[in-house]
Amino acid sequence: MLKYSRQRESIKNFIMQRSDHPTAETVYMGIRKEYPHVSLGTVYRNLSLLAELGEIRKISVGDGPDRFDGNTSPHYHFFCKECGQVIDLAMDSIDHINVIASHRFGGRVEGSVTHFFGTCPECLAKEISSKSS
């Protein structure tokens, strides 16, 4: 059994109250108000542990730092190539993609990770307004 930790609980609560998929650095800066002596290493270790336990989700975004999501229910993410924002996408499940992938594959497909990327609405609006100026 895992020993209770106030810092870990604070990290989890910080993430659960957000929808912007913060980085470890953002979490660190956010909980330092309550725990001024917490180290960045402690934040990283606890984020990894919480993700391993399935209490939060770790999102790898390629070139940028990992992001963390308090919503562990199945859903999809959009990555903005312009500003780096990670946004939840409200859409129907596409889990049938696993069946399609299995169709001509000799093994067993047990899951998939699907990310969408492009330009977010805010960056697209800026792009359009700068072209019309």
SSE topology:
Elements lengths: L5 H11 L7 H8 L8 H13 L4 E3 L7 E3 L6 E5 L5 E4 L6 H7 L12 E4 L2 H11 L2
Parallel strand pairs: 3-5
Antiparallel strand pairs: 1-2, 3-4
Question: What are the main properties of this structure?
Answer:
three-stranded mixed beta sheet, flat, Arc Repressor Mutant, subunit A, alpha+beta, two-stranded antiparallel ribbon, single chain, 2 domains, Dna Ligase, domain 1, 133 residues
Number of domains: 2
| Number of helices, where a helix is a run of at least 4 consecutive DSSP H or I residues | 5
Number of strands: 5
Would you tell me which CATH topology of the largest domain applies? Arc Repressor Mutant, subunit A
Q: Tell me the helix content.
A: 25-40%
Structural class given helices, strands, pairing?
alpha+beta
**Proportion of strand residues:** 5-15%
Word description of this protein:
The protein has 133 residues and is α+β, with helices and mostly antiparallel strands. It has five helices and five strands; from the N terminus they run H-H-H-E-E-E-E-H-E-H. It folds into two domains: 69 residues, Winged helix-like DNA-binding domain superfamily/Winged helix DNA-binding domain (Arc Repressor Mutant, subunit A); 60 residues, Ferric-uptake regulator, C-terminal dimerisarion domain (Dna Ligase, domain 1, 2-Layer Sandwich), CATH 3.30.1490. Strand 1 and strand 2 form a beta hairpin. Helix 1 packs across helix 2, helix 1 crosses helix 3 and helix 2 crosses helix 3. The longest helix is centred in the middle third of the chain and has 13 residues. The relative contact order is 0.13. The model has no long low-confidence stretch (mean pLDDT 93).
